[in-house]
Amino acid sequence: MPATVAELMASGDRTFSFEFFPPKTDEGEAQLWGAIEELQPLRPAFVDVTYGAGGSTRDRTLRVVERLARETNLMVVAHLTCVGATREELRTTIHRLTAAGVRNVLALRGDMPQGPEVAWEPPPDGVQRAEDLVRLLHQEGDFCVGVAAYPEAHPESPDRAADVKYLARKCAAGADFAITQFFFDPADYFALVEEAREIGCELPIIPGVMPVTNVGQIERFSRLSGAAFPTELAGRLHAVERDPEAVRAIGIDVATDLCRRLLDGGAPGIHFYTLNRSTATREIHRRLHA
Questions:
Q1: Phi-psi region for residue 127, left (φ > 0), alpha (ψ -120 to 50) or beta?
Q2: Each residue of 205-238: pLDDT tens digit?
Q3: pLDDT tens-digit profile of 176-204?
Q4: Residue 192: which H helix or E strand, with range?
Q5: Which are the catalytic amino acids?
Q6: CATH number of the domain that 244 lies in?
Q7: Collapsing DSSP states into helix, strand and coil, what is residue 10?
Q8: How many domains does the chain have?
């Protein structure tokens, strides 16, 4: 059985994976573990657990990751960011992941605690970039390291060409795979992959898909991430925004079509941003396997 995402990718099989975030309340924790229980029968290739904004949920992230590693047979990918941590604190976290048996880490720069609109400043005695975190992880343990990729370019990048060069630098630093920010146009994903390959970045790039189940929520996420929210889709959703089931139905149809086009075009798998809910993801997964 593969122990790392890189080994999964090397098998050539299509992967379906799910992202969760650490809960802030007892109710949220019950929802999280309920979603995990409902999604586990789908046999995801791996699951990953995020940090909150500015690394604010670091301890909760570690507790969720440790419990997943201890109580389930799921392959777990832990997020780790450069935000608000010295090199020594990062090493302590890395060693804790090792002790929990975690072999896969997604290395991210992260945003400032005040939000992505605030200019990035590395912490004193911290690391500057995701590529530096990739190197630190390889120095400190036997990890398979993933990084982020941006089909429409990171909001701080001047253009996609520059952004692809940043991805190539993470690749050169030792990244083993990448997961993209969510997006709606498959052409953006395929252009990213092609441009990365042209400059020698050969790591597997897994497209991230976020099913739309709440109009206001996806608009907020789009503003924060820089991902374009298509005008035509926005119009369809706003026309039924007072009917949650109609919004959900459109969101599932759109996400299913996007996944099919990505897989038909050669994407190695799909990474679902679940928002700790299972129903939309399970329905899309069912349709893709019908």
A1: beta
A2: 999 999 999 888 888 888 777 788 889 998 999 9
A3: 999 999 999 999 999 999 999 999 999 99
A4: helix 186-198
A5: 19
A6: 3.20.20.220
A7: helix
A8: 1
